[in-house]
Design a protein that fits this description.
Blueprint: H1 30-34, H2 41-56, E1 95-102, H3 108-113, E2 118-121, E3 125-128, E4 136-137, E5 143-144, E6 149-152, H4 155-166, E7 177-178, E8 188-195, E9 198-205, H5 216-230, E10 241-242, E11 248-254, E12 263-265, E13 288-292, H6 294-298, E14 309-316, E15 322-329
Parallel strand pairs: 7-9, 12-14
Antiparallel strand pairs: 1-2, 1-8, 2-3, 3-6, 4-5, 6-10, 8-9, 11-13, 11-15, 14-15
Length: 336
């Protein structure tokens, strides 16, 4: 597998922690595992249902697995793998499997607030977007995202998911890129996997839309994986806990985007707009970045605030000039 994730000016903006190269290796190869029949869909659904319900409910007091993701959590013990298990990173901030849909003809605010739809981390924690969540619009027109969800998988459940992704989901045999044919401005689907001693990123243009090429069979396999990860908790049926970010990324845009919007006064006495700076790599035209704490996001007056601001909030600075801000929650592997 190739290593690393390609730079992406629209979504990446840098800031993600590197994946450890010291994976535990196992004797069984991905090619051999891919030839084995994957577990039945109903069995996997029941498996993940039990994981999310344990994380979200618990009997009596909440389970420790339901605690919010944060830098102050106690270290998670390294999972013990069976001899034929799939090796993978084990750190709480190390990505094992990620699914993301983005790009296409969308407003710049959408790109600034975009987060991956599903991420599995080395300690078994998943952070995901609930498929049916549509966001909240405030009376003055500000669009706030519904908070992300999180749950904890056991190592056995992680193994089942990786076997499905590498086998029936085709990531074990996939190439790096499957461009769209005869479809312009369509979104791209990106799968990122770090397992079995290697790393791979697979980009698929117009997944579920493009049927004119010669790669229909592998696209069908990618679609199975996208369906599973994109609707991980079955539209809210299985629960999960709210993801509580420990930090956010604020993206500030100057004046033009604020025209015609309801305007609020600049909310922070200890944070000036001059503290927002252009990213060192990638980013958005005219966008300037600064890390925000949960308390600084709360000041914006949105409920709930944990999902960030997607549509842009218009702010009036002390000198009367207008700006808009988009707020994006940061995931455990991301830096401000």
């Amino acid at each position: 597998m190739g290593s690393g994730r390609p730079a992406r000016a629209t979504f990446g903006m840098g800031g993600r922690e590197p994946i450890s190269a010291s994976y535990r290796r196992v004797a069984m190869s991905a090619a051999r595992r891919a030839s084995r029949p994957a577990a039945a869909s109903t069995a996997l659904t029941a498996l993940f249902a039990s994981a999310i319900l344990v994380a979200a409910c618990g009997a009596g007091a909440p389970s420790p697995s339901a605690s919010p993701v944060g830098a102050t959590q106690a270290p998670t013990p390294t999972p013990t793998l069976a001899p034929d298990a799939i090796a993978h990173p084990t750190g709480a901030a190390e990505v094992v499997l990620r699914y993301e849909v983005g790009g296409g003809f969308v407003p710049i605010e959408f790109m600034a607030n975009h987060v991956p739809q599903f991420t599995l981390y080395g300690d078994g924690r998943v952070v995901f977007v609930r498929q049916d969540d549509q966001g909240i619009t405030t009376p003055d027109g500000v669009r706030a995202n519904v908070p992300l969800r999180t749950a904890k998988l056991t190592e056995a459940q992680v193994q089942e998911l990786l076997k499905f992704a590498l086998g029936n989901g085709a990531l074990g045999r996939a190439g790096p890129s499957y461009p769209a044919v005869n479809i312009a401005d369509a979104p791209s689907t990106t799968f990122e996997i770090h397992a079995d001693g290697g790393s791979k990123t697979v980009s698929v243009g117009a997944l579920g839309m493009d049927t004119s090429g010669t790669d229909g069979l592998i696209r069908a396999a990618f679609q199975k994986l996208a369906d599973r990860l994109g609707n991980f908790d079955q539209g809210g049926l299985l629960g999960g806990a709210m993801y509580e970010p420990t930090a956010y990324r604020g993206i500030l845009f100057d004046n033009a985007m604020a025209q015609g919007m309801v305007v609020r006064d600049w909310p922070w006495k200890d944070l000036a707009s001059t503290a927002f700076t252009a990213p060192s790599e990638g980013g958005f035209p005219g966008g300037r970045l600064h890390a925000l704490t949960p308390d600084q996001v709360k000041v914006l007056g949105l409920t709930p605030y944990q999902g960030g601001i997607a549509g842009g909030l218009a702010l009036r600075q002390a000198d009367g000039t207008l700006v808009t801000i988009v707020v994006r929650p940061l995931l455990p592997d991301e830096k401000p």
